[in-house]
Write the structure tokens for this entry.
Amino acid sequence: MAKISNQTVLQKLGAHFGEKISVPSEPYGMLTFEVTKESIIDVLSFLKNDPELKFNFLTDITAVHYPGQPLSIAVVYHVHSMTNGVRSRIKVYLDEANPTIPTATVLWDGANWMERETYDFFGVQFEGHPNLVRILNVDDMTVFPMRKEFPLEDPNRVDKKDFYFGR
């Protein structure tokens, strides 16, 4: 059972950051909120270093592509306070034309590979990252395959043709 509530976390963040914390919600019981890329490192640092909150574990960094929206790339951070048994999700929306955000490797060494994977699949540039190169895709790849601007399947695949299935 959690030693602190989502409301406690949100109140502490609100008292420290005010309007920089926006769109709070609790889908499936997990506190979720949005911040700007200018505030993300300060917010993550506060969550990690606050003596009561102690969000000491960075669970994941990923992204989501929402084509057609003004800020269409969402970088999503999941942090966990193992001491208090509570998790939170932080979202930062970026412009698809220039998806840049400061690196979280200044707070957690484990952010290194998570940010490389997010760069590799979504094209998010993590400013200050020590080695932002592709991690899973081939080095000479020119696209970011998890963006929704590409078809899900190759239209030239012959094994998917209707005549093979009697249609």
Notes: Residues 6-17 form the longest helix (12 residues).
